[in-house]
Amino acid sequence: MLNAYYLCILVVMNGKTTIIISGYTGKEAVALHRYLSKHYTINTVDDAEEVLHLLDTEDIDLLLCKHTSGQFDALELLRRARISHPEVVRLLAGDLSQAEINQATEKAAIYQFVASAWSAMQVELLVSRALENRELSYRHRHLSQDFKLAEHVLRKHQVKTGQGDRRAQFEKLVYCSPSMANLCNLAKKASTTNLPILIQGETGTGKELVARGIHHNSNRSELPLMVHNCGGMSDELLHSELFGHKRGSFTGAVSDRMGLFPAADGGTVFLDEIADVSPTFQVSLLRFLQEGEVKPLGSDQIIKCDVRVIAACNQPLDVLITRGEFRQDLYYRLNGFQLNVPPLRQRIEDVEVLTEFLVQKYASEINRTILGISPGVMEKFMLHSWPGNVRELENEIKRMMALTDSGTFIMEGALSPHLAALKPKLKSPSVDFNLDGITLKEKVAQMEARIIAETLERLRWNQSKAAIELGLSRVGISNKIKRYGLNDSTTVI
Asked: pLDDT at position 21, please?
């Protein structure tokens, strides 16, 4: 038997995946079989020619070959596979020289290299990630084709407003506002460094999309991006998820687990809702950021990891520090670069380009042709303050498209009741702001009243949020509202 192994993953009509493995013997074969049989059916193949035959006769998604100099030329097999079946994901294992690596890259277009020292668990993780990437690439190609078709239909029916020409993207983050352009320019600069990044912004603003954009524009883009939400998890479970654990280290730990930090070695880990972690776990995270060391639960072994951490939270960490709820030293470790994603109400000009983008996206997903959005719907969208930000807009568009027939426009009748009820606010009689003939103190008071009224109106009279934005206490803003006689029907021009 050749000292080589092959994994050919076959997608069949019932969705069951089959793995064909060859040339893997001994304890390594047993371990590999144990991990892969959790998700795949295992068969065997005798030699390379049979693998090539299967590529011709079956629907193969992934091929993993181990190269053994003087015994088996995996490079040649993968080169032939690339020519005959370019859609198959190709993985190469073995102890390779730099010349062999260059040859594999140029002639076989290898997706990923696997070191001989890799464990079966790591191989299984790589296979899973490679298949996920293949599926995402497939969807991206088809979505791109559908978007081009949708744009052609929209141009034909003259329903585009010209806003799409101003649309910009940072990976999957769509925007046209100057505030988002500044944010994305800063994110692009931050991506070229290895500094940790702290992303702050309200829920639904797209913090994870910013993190993904940073990773894909960094020098770690070829390595994994692991995403984990830290909200509502116990310290023990969070430690297990991020650092890993050994079998028997706690109740329910029936097998060893590799944490996200070791699994993402060389890549990036995105930690969402970082403000929710306990003070105890903050100490463990601080040590990792300082030393780059991981100690799995129940283990005495220290594992070194080279991981870039991108953290996100939906409330300002500096406020939590003043309350004693977040460690200041951890904040400074996470805050290599700070990116503040503005809420949608502060960049309302993005609503139109986001709406166009999301309509195109979901029209292809549900196989429906949408000719455009009526001006009345867009007017309502521009009046809404979107407390749920882009996520709320996305859900509203999905709902409206479900109520809209194919080949028609999205009309006001499909709006949610609270959006359909919105009406433009009537402005109160204009106030003369030339401010001639009054003292400086009176001018300052009028301007202060105007700023407070505009902030309260934009935040839908949420006095707590307005106080934070204006740098006032809750009592302070309440006193100013009384002093200037403001209420929710007041409009200061």
From this structure: 59
